[in-house]
Amino acid sequence: MSEAKHIEVTIRVPVIDSLSDDELSEIAHMRDGRWSAQTKALLEQFGTTKLDLNSSWASTWTGWCCPCCRREKPQIARMSSGSVLLCRLEYHHDHILDLAKRIYRKHNPPSEDQEINIQVSRAKDALMLFIERFERTLICMDCNLAEGRAKVELATEVAGGFTFTPSEIATFITVAPNRVHEVDVEKARLAWLAAKDDFADRIDFTARMAQRIASGRHRREVALGERVHRQTQDRDVIYRLFATAMPSSYRHQLGMRIEMRSVSNDGAGRSQKPKRRPRVQPPTDAEFADVDTAQQETKTWALADSDWLCPCCARSKREICRKSKRGFWTARIHRIVEYLPEDDEGSLARRRIDAAGEIIIGSYRQVLICHDCRNVVSELQRRRAGLGEQSLTLDDLRELVGDAVPHSPHEIDFETATDMAIANAPLIEAIEDYENHCSRVIEAFAAVKRMMEAMSWPWSEARDCIGYELAKANGWELDDGAAHADWLLKEAQRIFDFEETIS
């Protein structure tokens, strides 16, 4: 008998952080980033060192072409007014799905029956393919901006939940290299009118199918047990050998480290600072004391201590005081919500299972701002239908306000503010996704508590039922379903600060 041979595989693990730009280009040849020769050439062409390049741009190759405007990356990149080179692509998805899911959920709320929950979830995923008018599509920032501007201009005509398809966007934009598209509102109106009946029909179809599924129709028996594993693929063996050879600190992090080397956010300044007016006479000590005493009855004023400065305009309590038309000194502080990005890599990976956009929100905080900064948002909403409370971020407000004048209302360029608000469409989508995420985690937590009380089960057994539902509804391995259930329940405890210990 011949002696068995021992095969030893040696893999050289690249240390991404120490690679030169040229070496990284060899490893990530189908990607793009601040390290690519093309990006460096664009920076030189536009005469700047400041770069705003997002992960969607980095995830595509240098020869990528926008499916709407047909421009390639060198024609898409453009300068901001703050001399920042903008290299951004955005995922465009059909908002009819958000509306359809709400309709579907209304007819099919969570059930006590595990099998029904699995059937309802699977039917929903199958149904959505017949509802959406176009697949989630990567487009350039200017096409995404044009779509948002068209809907703002037609806000009183276009139905809520409607989204122009990439091919429809192409019909109402005028394209030029390295510039924002011009939008032909009349052509956008024609595109909406052409799609209007089809949109309404899809919503009607959603409601009728949701009712049929709620009544027990369209059931599809789910296979019991775990999935059958087919023949092992070469890539699976290679990945296992590679993962074993990697240092533990690098396992499952190569993609993240390449992205960190690729993206850049140098803070694009987008607006010119408005001309400032002469400073006005401040209130006397007695006048400010009167304002302070009157406002102590409001919770937000009391929450702001004596050292508080508005996070947008950097003015103090005294500096935000200004005279009303009747000659009385007045001041107010308002509470708004600032949403914060998810920074946990494990949670990011799981959230991307359901999230439609690039931005993933992980939490939020309440922020106290002055009445003049809050009025910028209110006035923008009054001027432009279709914009909401979150259409401008704190950074947007800081930039719009510029060097604020004490005791005076802000001078704002509302055309620039409108552009900022429309460009924030991905943020609005991310907020909706975060709210949906909160609903999912609270439902999972409530289901576990309900099973524990009804069946006298321990936490772990109730959790296993949730994991089984998730695995069967999504076609996962049972272990993957259990891991996702654990994560959902920990998210519920993190977000809602439940006192119960999850174990």
Give the terminus-to-terminus CA distance. Answer: 54 Å
What class would the helix/strand composition place it in? Answer: alpha+beta
Give the domain tally: 4
Instruction: Estimate the global geometry from the Cα principal axes.
Output: globular
Largest sheet: 4 strands, mixed
Count the beta strands: 12
Radius of gyration in whole Å, from Cα?
A: 27 Å
Mean pLDDT: 88
Share of helical residues: 40-55%
Q: Given the structure, what is the number of helices?
A: 20
Give the amount of beta strand, in percent.
5-15%
Unreliable runs, pLDDT <50, ≥5 residues?
Answer: 268-272
Instruction: Kindly report the spatial arrangement of strands forming the biggest sheet.
Output: 2-3-1-8
Compact description:
This protein has 20 helices and twelve strands. The chain has helices spanning 21-27, 37-46, 55-58, 73-76, 96-107, 114-131, 141-153, 166-171, 185-214, 234-245, 254-262, 285-295, 299-303, 345-351, 371-383, 394-401, 414-423, 425-455, 459-474, 478-496; strands at 51-53, 78-79, 85-87, 89-92, 137-140, 173-174, 182-183, 264-265, 322-323, 329-330, 333-341, 361-370. The protein has a four-stranded mixed sheet with strand order 2-3-1-8. It has a two-stranded antiparallel ribbon with strand order 4-5. It has a two-stranded antiparallel ribbon with strand order 6-7.
Could you explain the architecture of this structure?
With 503 residues, this protein is of the alpha+beta class. It folds into four domains: 16-87 and 234-265, no CATH class; 92-214, no CATH class; 286-343 and 357-409, no CATH class; 430-496, no CATH class. The chain is 49% helix and 9% strand. The protein has 20 helices and twelve strands. It has helices at 21-27, 37-46, 55-58, 73-76, 96-107, 114-131, 141-153, 166-171, 185-214, 234-245, 254-262, 285-295, 299-303, 345-351, 371-383, 394-401, 414-423, 425-455, 459-474, 478-496, and strands at residues 51-53, 78-79, 85-87, 89-92, 137-140, 173-174, 182-183, 264-265, 322-323, 329-330, 333-341, 361-370. The strands form five sheets. A four-stranded mixed beta sheet has the order 2-3-1-8. It has a two-stranded antiparallel sheet with strand order 4-5. Helix 5 (96-107) runs parallel beside helix 9 (185-214), helix 18 (425-455) packs across helix 19 and helix 19 (459-474) packs across helix 20. The radius of gyration is 27 Å and the shape is globular. The model is unreliable at 268-272 (pLDDT under 50).
